[in-house]
Automatic annotation (TrEMBL):
<protein>
    <submittedName>
        <fullName>PAS domain S-box-containing protein/diguanylate cyclase (GGDEF)-like protein</fullName>
    </submittedName>
</protein>
<feature type="domain" description="EAL">
    <location>
        <begin position="1"/>
        <end position="254"/>
    </location>
</feature>
Length: 254
């Protein structure tokens, strides 16, 4: 099933769709952005989650056309919400390592913004440490070009990979997303609290926004607030939901 030809067919048959999860400001509890997360609605098998096909897509190169589609669709949806008058500061899109390195990636991002009319400042690309640390000089060039366009950059799954603090200083990254493995046991694990609190402090000192992923409980939220964490995301607020449900969530905002 998870083969290149199936993924290609899924793309032409419009079987991919984006779900969205709120990014919430801890200052006022408002949804200030959303993260786009791909799903494959298979006609026979139902909804297939990305863990089951993204790595195959990466290995076969299908991640490039799929990733292009994700970017255009996310930008189109963000602009549709903005046109409706809904307050959406950020549309965050995951970018796979292969996709980030494909020739013409920066131009493709510019094309998605130009075609959909979305302001570059509204788009945030999520990159993992694995993506940015591999060939740091190439990364710096691409990140700088995106940054000059006005696109924001965030480091996803932060803390799980190999990150040089020197590059954190050099790369034009605006946000750190603390990996949910550190948040999961926050109430019970003093080491996780130390790690989360250290990332929050470092982020503040480097003038970066810090977002905690995978927040599921009020206790985790209280701890993160006491650490001075700026943003949160997780099932406590909402699971990833389809565009229709996300529209309702945005409309119900004060
Ligand atoms: O909800 P969740 O199961 O959506 O996501 C699982 C994993 O798949 C996460 O690591 C997430 O970053 C990744 N993922 C989700 N959507 C996309 C996408 O559009 N592109 C890429 N490259 N990865 C994605
Ligand atoms: O790797 P990345 O951070 O892009 O992937 C986001 C993944 O985290 C998605 O699979 C999404 O469904 C999942 N996720 C989001 N919030 C929570 C949460 O509160 N708990 C758990 N267990 N997973 C979450
Ligand atoms: Mn992500
Ligand atoms: Na993450």
């Amino acid at each position: 099933l998870m083969m290149e030809s199936n993924l290609r067919h899924a793309l032409t048959a419009s079987e991919f769709e984006l779900h969205y999860q709120p990014l919430v400001s801890l200052a006022n509890g408002e949804i200030v952005g959303v993260e786009a997360l791909i799903r494959w609605r298979h006609p026979d098998l139902g909804v297939i989650m990305p863990d089951r096909f993204i790595s195959v897509a990466e290995d076969t190169g299908m991640i490039n056309p799929i990733g292009d589609w994700v970017l255009f669709e996310a930008c189109r949806q963000a602009q549709a919400w903005i046109d409706e008058g809904l307050a959406l500061q950020t549309m965050a899109v995951n970018v796979a390592p292969v996709q980030f390195r494909q020739a013409g990636f920066v131009e493709m991002v510019a094309g998605a913004l130009g075609t959909t009319g979305l302001a570059a400042e509204r788009l945030e690309l999520e990159l993992t440490e694995r993506t940015v640390m591999h060939d740091a000089e190439f990364t710096l060039g691409t990140l700088s070009a995106l940054n000059r366009m006005g696109v924001s950059l965030s480091l996803d799954d932060f803390g799980t990979g190999y990150s040089s603090l020197a590059y954190l200083k050099r790369f034009p990254v605006g946000k750190l997303k603390i990996d949910r493995s550190f948040i999961m046991d926050l109430e019970r694990d003093a080491d996780d609290r130390a790690i989360a609190s250290t990332i929050v402090s470092m982020g503040r000192n480097l003038r970066l926004t810090v977002l905690a992923e995978g927040v599921e409980t009020a206790e985790q939220l209280t701890l993160l607030r006491s650490m001075g964490c700026g943003m949160v995301q997780g099932y406590y607020f909402s699971r990833p939901v389809d565009a229709l449900r996300m529209t309702e969530l945005l409309r119900s905002q004060p």
